TrEMBL record:
Keyword Coiled coil in annotation: yes
GO BP, one annotated term: mRNA splicing, via spliceosome
Region spans: Disordered: 42-62, 123-162
Biased composition range(s): Basic and acidic residues: 135-162
Organism taxonomic ancestry: Eukaryota, Metazoa, Chordata, Craniata, Vertebrata
Keyword terms: Coiled coil
Name of the protein: CWF19-like 2
GO cellular component: post-mRNA release spliceosomal complex
Family: Belongs to the CWF19 family.
Coiled-coil annotated spans: 76-103
Residue ranges crossing the lipid bilayer per the database entry: none
Length: 162
């Protein structure tokens, strides 16, 4: 009897998975080393300097979602975006929000009045387009009667032919 089968090496699936995991970790480390080697000490982009991705970090994922705006909203979307930018500028420069608004628009009241006007115009346009302007108009009674008479004439004419 030959016992050669006992000399063969056997491996379990867990051992194979462990080896693959080690290989993947080594590949990741090599990729990171190559990326670090490509970066220069003289890099000007601060997001690349410290091993970053080259892009600034996003503070809020939901804020990055774009809103769909109406084309003819009387400048409402533009004014809202301007408001948001002024707010961000006030936080960034640690200044009073009303000072920044006054620099751009003259005073807070002027900006607020423009915003209110744009909201009114936009709501009117929204009501105009949403009111069924594109729907088929209802007929008045006289037009309905004309249509009924016409239909009766058509049916009488068909009866006379038959």
């Amino acid at each position: 009897m030959n016992l050669d089968f006992m000399l063969l090496k056997t491996t379990s699936s867990a051992a194979v998975r462990g080896e693959r995991h080690k290989e993947q970790i080594l590949e990741r480390q090599k990729a990171q080393e190559l990326e670090q080697a490509m970066l220069s000490e003289r890099e000007l982009n601060p997001y690349w300097k410290d091993g970053g991705t080259g892009l600034p970090p996003e503070k809020d994922e939901t804020a990055s979602v774009k809103k769909v705006t109406v084309v003819e909203d009387a400048g409402l979307s533009w004014l809202r975006k301007s408001y948001q930018r002024m707010k961000e500028q006030a936080e960034r420069e640690k200044r009073n929000f009303e000072e920044i608004v006054a620099e751009r628009y003259g005073s807070m009241e002027i900006f607020q009045s423009r915003l209110d006007e744009a909201e009114k115009v936009a709501s009117r346009k929204e009501n105009y387009y949403g009111s069924g302007r594109w729907k088929k108009p209802d007929y008045s009674e006289s037009e309905k009667e004309k249509k009924e008479r016409y239909m009766k004439k058509e049916t009488r004419g068909e009866d006379a032919r038959n």
